[in-house]
Amino acid sequence: MMKRPYYTDSYKTEFDAKIVAVTTFSSGSDKELPAVELDASYFYPTSGGQAFDTGSLGEWRVVDVVSEKSGPGSLGRVLHLLDADSSMLPTQACVGQIVRGVVDWPRRYDHMQQHSGQHLLSHAFFHLFGYETVSVHFGAVESTLDLAVDALRDEELRAIERYVTEVVYANLPIQSYFVGEQEIAALPLRRPPKVTGEIRVVEIEGIDYSACGGTHCRSSGELGLVKLLRTEKSRKNKRVAFVCGWRAQADYGVKHQLLLESAKLFSTDISQVPPSIERVLEQNKLLGRRVESLNDELLTVEAQRICETAGSVGEYRVVAQVFDDREIAEVKKLAVLLQEDEDVVVLFAVRQADQLTAIFARGKNVLVKMGSLLHETLRQFGGNGGGRPEFAQGGKVDAVHAHDILENAMGRLHSELTAL
């Protein structure tokens, strides 16, 4: 079994090791990648929710690290998956050679900060309020932990951040060590271990003891900034998103810059950005209502004009018109206004890009069923639609057929109206 020295030293990023096997492994995308097994490695494989390390082995780029379990409770072998596009890939002839391993330190340290920060946050929620962490997810941008609680109050979140900041400034040592089953009972583990036998414990000195196989910082001070981003519902639990360390620093920098730019747009201080936005939103609502009112007035005038120029079939007034790139909702409003004339029939076609929407309507004195008229008309052109006797809508027809559709509908309408 391969030695895993990252258990005792998460900070070592360069090492020499012997190649003991060369094979292939199917990655998450089902693509077979060349893989190397070493006699010892500081590369961390995906485990316990923490993502794998990347880096290099000699001239080869390590793109993934996986741990193959050989049995219950067994660590199994670790495979270092290599970039398949490398110019030279390892062969069986490489077995027994010594290779230089280099771990991508910024990625490793980021993972260490997020993982140690999660331990501290989970401890804080349990220590202050008795809320147990039921699951954890470490993401590339932010991480989350799910708490066995229905709701979290703002004052609780503020208390968590205050407590965590105190622990960060206290710079408590974070250490890991292995204990046997008899010693485990003497430790105040926050959660019971999921495996038996010898257990690796990560301790934030004197306050938190967790069974964990991940890589961690040496002290709480290395976490720097620990920031809660938001909360959301997750089934019966409450999910908390967070960032730690350099990731939190970057997040703060981006958001602060956005606040400065927003304040500049309003020519105000950043503390006045929220009320400034509220004023703009309220003004937009008022303007929106005013625009809608004016638009309704214009539609009323347009409806009157259309009625005055409409053709007729016997005693009925018929409006047939094609609109280009006009909002469907606006055309429907226009049709409804025209329906106020009890003897009117409305045949509208709206062309938007290469698609067409047909809207047919009638006044209450017209006994033609608009749903049937529209359905039968569109069916001739490969479209479909329907609706109520007085109002119908449909489409799925090429826009080039707009005038042909109205002409077809006019023919059918004429036959029905003259038969009344």
Percent strand: 25-35%
The class by helix and strand makeup works out as alpha+beta
The number of E-state strands comes to: 19
CA-CA gap between termini: 92 Å
- Amount of helix: 25-40%
Shape, per Cα inertia axes: elongated
The largest sheet has its strands arranged as: 1-2-5-4-3-6
Q: Report the C-alpha radius of gyration, rounded.
A: 35 Å
Give a quick account of the main beta sheet: strands, pairing sense, barrel closure. 6 strands, antiparallel, barrel
- Residue-averaged pLDDT: 92
Order of H and E elements? EEEEEEHEEHEHEEEEHHEEHEEHEEH
Number of helices: 8
Q: Catalogue the unreliable spans.
A: none
Provide a compact summary of the structure.
Helix content is 34%, strand content 31%. The protein is built from eight helices and 19 strands. A hairpin with a 2-residue loop joins β16 and β17.
